[in-house]
Design a protein that fits this description.
The chain has 8 helices and 5 strands, in the order H-H-E-H-H-E-H-E-H-E-H-E-H. By secondary structure, the protein is an alpha/beta fold.
């Protein structure tokens, strides 16, 4: 990936982050840090990896994306609006009663391929899509973006084992490995090194990447694409709230609705970073 392409994707990611901040701020909602964390991953997938077309939305051989990390839904909506699946003005009615863009993905929303499911349920949905595509003789790929906290759900590991057993090589899981520590005895599952060994033990091809570096993501996905008869997982090391310093690494503002003052503050930080 050349420098010009990297700069283009970086600039696009800044604009998507701005839209995420605005939509969460207007809605006085939660989840800003989670959404900001995965923006680079979604930008890379939609603009570099996935075969999707806003002009032919019903194309059966298109690639699919499952956002298992439902808390990051604003990032998905902001990307879909930029791609032209719906009018960008829809973002400002996020989470309003009766509006198109609700808190979690709905397949009735243009561009959304699947719901998030229950906590940890996205990988099961993605595996089912892969099996259906294979049965239809289609070479489409399915990408699933999951938070590392979801890996503490037993159903996730059942789905991982099943996907490996069925050799779903059209499935790529991207783990948002932000390392943010929740309270609880299973927090060690979030260590990237431990995760790699666990995935390998379950028969997955594992590759590591910097989730905010487009060149690193390109190298990781290129390595994974050459692997046959195995599902793949990209362990993407990320920073919670990336791009907005007072939200990064689990800042105190993470757990409350975004105020108008914090919205303006976040936008100023993003604009200042863009100007560097």
């Amino acid at each position: 990936m050349d420098e010009a392409k990297i700069k283009t994707l970086e600039s696009l990611a800044v604009e998507v982050r701005k839209d995420v901040v605005r939509m969460v701020g207007v809605a006085r909602s939660y989840g800003l840090a989670s959404a900001l964390t995965v923006v680079d991953l979604l930008v890379y997938l939609y603009w570099e990896k996935m075969s999707v077309s806003v002009h032919d939305r019903a194309r059966r051989d298109r690639d699919r994306l499952v956002l298992s990390k439902g808390a990051a839904t604003p990032a998905l909506y902001a990307c879909l609006a930029r791609l032209g699946f719906f009018n960008r003005e829809e973002l400002w009615s996020y989470r309003r009663l009766g509006a198109m863009l609700q808190g979690y993905p709905d397949i009735r929303t243009p561009g959304v391929d699947a719901p998030s499911g229950a906590h940890g349920g996205g990988i099961g949905i993605a595996s089912g899509l892969c099996m259906a595509l294979r049965m239809d003789g289609l070479a489409s790929r399915v990408y699933c973006v999951m938070g590392d906290g979801e890996l503490q759900e037993g159903v996730v590991w059942e789905s991982l084992f099943a996907a490996s057993g069925r050799k779903l090589d059209n499935l790529t899981l991207i783990v948002d490995a932000n390392g943010h520590k929740d309270q609880g005895p299973l927090a060690g599952l979030k260590e990237t090194g431990a995760l790699a060994e666990k995935f390998k033990a379950f028969g997955w091809f594992v590759v590591d990447a910097d989730g905010h570096d487009f060149a690193s993501l390109e190298r990781a996905f290129s390595a994974a694409e050459g692997v046959a008869a195995q599902p793949k997982v990209v362990l993407a090391r990320t920073c919670t709230g990336s791009g907005v310093s007072f939200l990064e690494r689990g800042g105190s503002e993470n757990g409350r609705p975004l105020s108008s003052e914090d919205m303006d503050r976040a936008l100023s930080l993003l604009e200042a970073g863009e100007a560097k």
